[in-house]
Predict the structure of Serine/threonine-protein phosphatase 4 regulatory subunit 3.
Amino acid sequence: MTDTRRRVKVYTLNEDRQWDDRGTGHVSSGYVERLKGMSLLVRAESDGESGSLLLESKINPNTAYQKQQDTLIVWSEAENYDLALSFQEKAGCDEIWEKICQVQGKDPSVDITQELVDESEEERFDDMSSPGLELPPCELGHLEELAELVASSLPSPLRREKLALAVENEGYIRKLLELFRQCEDLENTDGLHHLYEIVKGIFLLNRTALFEVMFSEECIMDVIGCLEHDPALDGLPRRHRDFLTKTARFKEVIPIGDPELRAKIHQTYRVQYIQDMVLPTPSVFEENMLSTLHSFIFFNKVEIVGMLQDDEKFLTDLFAQLTDEATDDDKRHELVNFLKEFCAFSQTLQPQNRDTFFKTLSNMGILPALEVILGMDDVQVRGAATDIFSYLVEYNPSMVREFIMQESQQNDDALQSDCMSPSLCHEERRVTGLNDILLINLIIEHMICDSDPELGGAVQLMGLLRTLVDPENMMATANKTEKTEFLSFFYKHCMHVLSAPLLANTTDDKPSRDDFQTSQLLALILELLTFCVEHHTYHIKNYIINKDILRRVLVLTASQHAFLALCALRFMRRIIGLKDEFYNRYIMKNFLFEPVVKAFLNNGARYNLMNSAIIEMFEYVRVDVKSLTAHIVENYWKSLEDVDYVQTFKGLKLRYEQQRERQDNPKLDSMRSILRNHRFRRDARTLDDDEEMWFNADEEELEDCEAVVPPSDNKITKACGGAGENEDLMDPISKFMERKKLKDSDDKEVLGKSSSLSGRQSPSFKLSFSGSTTKTSLSSPPASLRPGSPGSGAKGSPPTAATVTTKVGLVDYPDDDEEDEEEVGGESKEETPPLSKKSKLSS
């Protein structure tokens, strides 16, 4: 790589026909073995001599390269992949262009090497064998012939290229514009219509060199004049030039000393006007023919932002006048609008350039200036300042948060220098209202005081506040945590401002003001508070409980506006969904379900969003929140017991009774727990060694009545036992079955009450632990209820028959109690096979 490196920016054209910045580096050309040819290489300048490759592109002999504006080289590497190199110096562009032309065997004086579009071999041969395109004389009598020539050349890329070269080399554009002035003077309508078609066709040639002539100061207004006379308008020309010269006025709020910058601004505005207003909407086939026009405007905007950004005197004067109290309102309005447009231009920049742009504005003091502007009474000025603030928040919320906290710290330091006591300092800050002049509090106040009936500005500001308090975009460093610091600041200095309208409007049992605009504002505030509940667990919990916010919010369920009542319900639902016992105790202590129940009853049997939202909340409580279930049934059951079109409230009562049953019968609950732990403590598929021995033993071997009992079963290890020992074994089983009978009778009573709820029959089955004396003879009863744990008995002892028979009803519980009941029943079912197997052994 012996070529001198040149500084360039690499751009790619995206799907929206916008140029994306891929980085800055140094370009060189050389032979690349892997690509088997001469190639363009761009290495990132930030990585030094051996920087990473931003671009490695082989100079293909068939690729069409274009040189634009002396510092741009543009080409396409695939059907939808366009590339551009923007050079810092013209000399670098010329050098690389010569290399490209040398590889392709082209004259470096051309601005485009060739076209890539394929044509038929016959047409290509005819075009290549014919000499250059000859234009008719530029006279009034030949305008029709020229218009036909332009129209016939546009479909063919090669003919289009030859036409562009002919128009460029012969200085044809200026001659055409001279004819335009003559036709206007003579009111030659036909000539003007032909000129319209000719100039429109020249735009579709998509050539930068022609645009530079057409958009020059002396030509652009005549070009716009040609495009006023569309034949489709029936002789009624547009008045674009009148608008640009008389209506549209360039306001130089801060004197621009650079004449090149001023000319570039004028040119960009007029070319943008041509693209948006003058040229007809391009067809699908013509759209790609105007890609160079899009690029022309894009690079002009980038250049304007860069030139303004580099002019420190200009920006210093701008911010000085913005914050100067002596600046009159009209002047300040113009300054703010300029700054707004300046920020809007920056949106065309790529991330790296935009980062530099906003850092420059931050260093110049844009946030203090915005704070001054937002404190003014002019609604239009405040609206423009809000738009500027939104650009800053969307770009870098951390920068805005840092400024806000620094501002608060400065105010605190100023007060502490005057106050001996911190408590007095805090009181003075409250009395003097220093909290209220913070930038973020100004934003909150503008949201609250939005005069728009639809609250369009308030919605925008609420979105900005949400971005600022969102922990997801807060950074954590080794020295500090932005989330902790900013949220502590926000809840100390700002939350009272945000919640003030809510607290002021909910002092009674119903909203003090219930008009549409107030309800919309309260809904916005509730939306932000709901967001805080979801994302600020600690800070918002303290605020809600200490300020009794939920009780105030639930007053809004009495609003005549359904959307506001639903916002209040959603706020409470988010709190309950956290399953936080601090919140639950707060709700129970203050009986905060009362306004919800009242709203449900007032809604009646109407099937609407209010009805569904409240039922869903109670259903969630029934399934997941035990403490609130008991609270609701004990305090509001009489009001809800008649609601039978859903099973939610009967389910709540049933769940409550199940909880009470557990509390009243701790031994039964303990037995269930023991049984459940006993069965599922190990893998159900794994058998003990003793169980394996029993199942694998032959029947003849087991006739000796040698019982195999696992060590866990009461440590019974004797092979045969007496009758007294058998009675001891059966005693706990008999007691358990008696308790089971008692429980079953209770369950039947509960089922009788809730038969309409479950709608299912209670299945029953028979538990049997015995063998009949006529059919089976066991030496002893089973020592365990588990399969594979047969009982023990002595040979020759009197046969003992133990028969325990009962009916067990399974209650269809909606929660885990159903599992408990089915587990006990399942265990009983499992007991039958080993017992029946043993009954055959004693015969």
